[in-house]
Amino acid sequence: MNDVVVPHGFEVPGWDTWERGLRPEVDAPLLYGPAFVELPVNSRGHDFFVGDIHGELDMLFHLLGAVGFSSGDRLIAPGDLIDRGSYSCEVLELAYEQNFLFSTIGNHEEELIHLDPDQGDVCNSSILGGEKHWWFGLPPELRHRYRRIARTLPVALEVPLKNGTRVGVIHAQVPQQDWNVAKALSPSYGDRNPNKLSNTRVALSARAIAYGVIRDQRRSPLPGQVHHIDLVVTGHSCIVPGEVWRYGNQIGLESLAFSMYGAMTIFDPLRGRYWQLVNPRSPAGGNWPEVREIEPPVDRRPLLE
């Protein structure tokens, strides 16, 4: 992990001594972690929210360094920490350490849970393609480790801000547009029937709001606002590469950081500010393009109701 370039002035807790070693508490037999976690108010710094990281740790560090992320700040992610980028193992380790990165589970971590750690040379899921190449190339003990780490991630996170605002974080979509339903979700991901939209399946994979309502402009039977929470941050669904979206009190931060035409987006809800880093492989990127502050997304709900 120490081959990742850390921006000047940005310090990662324990970075110089960090090693990808085995820790007894995660390498012992482990069931699922809690499905819902509420973080305490961050009295030491700011809470920032980011879209799907997908192993793009170098992009993440450049973005955090540019926005002044510092000791006491927290970064909250909606899952899909892994695959596509070069640093899946490292991002999982940082989420497990919980020094500054806290995340829900995404559908890519759920896929990892269902893989056989003892079949490292065979991709046993047709939907994975080459995205799990990093995992299949690991020794068995590390494959077991990262599968277990994935099982510790909650389905839903609640983050209370200093001003009293409560932010809910979930990977794809809040089931039934009701945060109380999200708080009662099961931590088991055993039902993988694509024709059965359980509440957990909606949380990890649904795109009804992002694609059906916003992109395709179809009316939804679901309410525009998610009830029993002030604000919801999701990943998973991108309408246009490099853009974020808002629908009522729901904000979609997935802007395809891994894509040649995408960007990584970070959001500070307390100050209402958004920043982006264009993928350096993009034609508009170059060698670490400048991080830019972007305008808050326009609420699409009044336009579509």
TrEMBL record:
SUPFAM superfamilies xref list: Metallo-dependent phosphatases
Superkingdom of source: Bacteria
Coiled-coil zones: none
Gene Ontology molecular functions: phosphatase activity
One Pfam short name: Metallophos
Domain Calcineurin-like phosphoesterase stretches: 49-238
One GO cellular component, as annotated: cytoplasm
Protein name: Calcineurin-like phosphoesterase domain-containing protein
